[in-house]
Design a protein that fits this description.
It is found in: Cell membrane; Membrane. By secondary structure, this protein is mainly α. It contains 15 helices and two strands. It folds into three domains: about 210 residues, no CATH class; about 35 residues, no CATH class; about 30 residues. α2 packs across α7, α3 crosses α12 and α9 runs antiparallel to α11.
Length: about 325
Amino acid sequence: MGFFDTILFPFIWFDSAILVGFEWLLTRLGMPDTSGWTWVLAIIGLVITLRALLTPLMIKQIKSQRRLQMVQPELAKIQAKYKGKKDQASQKAFQEETFGLYREAGANPFSACLPILIQMPFFFALFRLLNSAEAVSEGRAEPLGLFSFELATKMAESDILGAGLTSTFLHDSDLSAKILSAVLIVVMSFTQFITSHQLMRQNMSPEALNSPMAKQQQMLIYILPVVFAVTGVNFPVALLIYWTVSNFWTMGQQFFVIRNMPAPGSPAEQKYRERMARKGRDASGIQLKNPNLLKERQGAAEQAAAVERAGGQRVQPKSKKRAKKR
């Protein structure tokens, strides 16, 4: 066992156990054990299992991002305080005050990267399993994890739409493998862009969107899909399927969170309030006895915000009963 396999040892066993388990279940349900679609469904089962286990981390990430949203006004004050100051002492003080603010709020500016970083060992473990399966089928290596010689050979020799699961765009001359790999690479890169874009544009307040950290994340929106497209030509078809399915999971998960638990001050929150208003509910989803009261409150809040932006004085809103008396 090489150094890389030693590091990935627990992740290889986890991936192989899930794949073997789903393969056993699917064949017992009547699917052929030599079909590539059996292994595709097993890979989808691996994605679902892994992402379900990462759900507590996802919840922690959402809470951390909400805290980041709440500290944006204070962060803007710190940035304005040290704007234009390039000396070492000012930069050190800026970093100390910034991270002190994050620490007091219990926010982690790197929380958005945690799900991807945690998934990477499982991703590389699957990559090793696929490579070893091909080597086992050719008699060049021993199977890894819980894979037997028979299972590794079946995976390596199975195909979907004429493309082998262990085939790659760059190292396989088969036209079916190149076409399927190219389609999966495009879908994988596009879904990666959509997940990052909807998080930035829909679930961040204007203050948070204009912060330096957000600007760096905006660069990643365009860089990451390119990175995946460039490196994807070396990935086996099965690995491209794994990452594409994982991206679709992330898209659905983010859509649910953004729609039902939007960040304060974001465009998604405004849409959420409008939906609740149409249903006669307040922002917490509680049914109001008098739905018109919510509209009056929203109108007063919008008027106050408009007057504040204009630098004028707020006009005290009047209820319908007071208006009729006058």
